[in-house]
């Protein structure tokens, strides 16, 4: 079964999950201008919001999802309200606003229940699971990820199956079960390939590259990331591309190629900053500091940078990342 883009609704439902975001935005703007019903307007505004979010145009994405929400709310369309709130919650997570992400995504799940939209409910719950996972609540979100994986398999939603597998794989990876993580990323890659879900495939390749690197297979890991990069560029997946580059920095750092890693991390900090994604920017900055420390940067400067990053992670609720910063301080400074 081929993957579909459930967030493209109404007249835009025919858009492929692999459609270039520039094309999606152009089509959505055309439909918004020509819309004659609330459902058409809400659907077009949602697509505008999602295209802009993924392109890193966060201010326009914010305005568009709110417009979609108001249109759907005024029309009494609970399902469309749910999709708009899902978009808003996803954007809030991308911008590092985790409490707000929980609020919007919880409201999205409730609206989806009222609107009897099972897919929107699944996406909202998936958003809640992912928000908790990126904050480091691995035990608390594993059960929800597994529940959503079972529902996605039962519903025949390959794109959602891929998402759930990748989320569970990330939890196993951070819990130290690398074999289970690799098996799940590999299955996700296979399903994404068979379902022609190029976005899901790009993320799966990144996960496989991470674990391949941890096994000491540096060149193989770099080749996997190089395979995923054109997908991100062709579809204009700006966030996925930046995370691909950050992983390249991780691979080089693990291989002891600190000068190369420093160059990659430095460029990636700018990439994340350009799309207003503070979590990725801070993680790339952590890698940059570690690379510079390995090349002899002054210990007081390294200490100050790691303390600042740890404080940033703690203040924003990124508990796992805060532990990573503390581990780096112990590793590099004793």
TrEMBL record:
TM regions (residue ranges): none
One Pfam family from the record: TPR_12
SUPFAM superfamilies according to UniProt: TPR-like (SSF48452)
Entries under SMART domains matching the protein: TPR
Name the record gives this protein: Tetratricopeptide repeat protein
């Amino acid at each position: 079964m081929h993957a579909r883009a459930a967030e493209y609704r109404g007249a835009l439902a025919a858009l492929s999950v692999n459609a270039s975001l520039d094309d999606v935005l152009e089509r959505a703007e055309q439909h918004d201008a020509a819309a004659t019903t609330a459902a058409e307007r809400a659907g077009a505004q949602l697509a505008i919001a999602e295209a802009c979010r993924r392109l890193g145009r966060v201010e326009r994405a914010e305005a568009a999802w709110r417009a979609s929400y108001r249109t759907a709310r005024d029309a009494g369309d609970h399902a469309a309200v749910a999709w708009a709130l899902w978009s808003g919650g996803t954007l809030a997570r991308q911008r590092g606003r985790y409490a707000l992400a929980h609020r919007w995504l919880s409201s999205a799940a409730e609206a989806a229940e009222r609107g009897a939209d099972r897919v929107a409910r699944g996406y909202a719950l998936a958003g809640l699971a992912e928000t908790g996972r990126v904050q480091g609540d691995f035990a608390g979100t594993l059960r929800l990820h597994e529940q959503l994986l079972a529902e996605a398999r039962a519903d025949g939603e390959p794109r959602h199956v891929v998402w759930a597998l990748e989320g569970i794989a990330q939890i196993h990876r951070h819990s130290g079960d690398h074999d289970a993580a690799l098996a799940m990323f590999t299955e996700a890659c296979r399903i994404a390939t068979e379902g022609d879900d190029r976005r899901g495939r790009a993320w799966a390749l990144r996960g496989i590259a991470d674990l391949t690197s941890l096994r000491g297979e540096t060149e193989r890991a770099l080749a996997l990331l190089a395979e995923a990069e054109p997908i991100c560029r062709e579809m204009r997946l700006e966030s996925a591309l930046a995370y691909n580059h950050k992983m390249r920095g991780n691979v080089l750092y693990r291989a002891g190629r600190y000068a190369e890693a420093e160059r990659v991390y430095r460029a990636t900090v700018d990439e994340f900053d350009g799309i207003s994604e503070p979590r990725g920017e801070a993680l790339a900055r952590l890698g940059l500091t570690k690379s510079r420390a390995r090349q002899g940067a002054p210990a007081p400067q390294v200490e100050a940078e790691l303390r600042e990053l740890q404080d940033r992670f703690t203040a924003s609720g990124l508990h796992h990342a805060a532990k990573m910063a503390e581990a780096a301080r112990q590793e590099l400074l004793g």
